[in-house]
User: Fold this.
Amino acid sequence: MRHADRTKRNRYLAIALFVHPDDRAAFARSMDRETLLGALDRSRSFTMAYRLVRGDESTYVNMRVSRMENDERFIVVGVANIDEEVRRRGAI
Assistant:
C-alpha cells in the first residue's frame, strides 16, 4: 500500500474513532488537504469547533490551524478544550 493511501486511511480511522458522529462529515471536509491549504491561502488561520469523543463522553474543542510564521511549508495545529464554555451557553 502506498504511503499516501495509508495516510488517508489513517486519517479516516482517526476521524471515526475520535470525532463525534454528527461532526465527522464537516471535520473530514475541512481536513481535506486541498480544502485546508486553500483556507490557509485565503486567511492566516482556520478555526473549527467540534466534539472530540473519549469513550462514551464527548468534549467540545476548538481547533486552530495556521501556517508557521517562519516557514510556510509547515502548519501548526492547536486544540483547546471549550467544553465548559459551550455547555454553559448551550450547544453549538
Remarks:
- The chain has one domain: 3-89.
- Residues 3-89 form a domain with the Beta-Lactamase fold (CATH 3.30.450).
- Residues 19 and 52 are 5 Å apart (CA to CA).
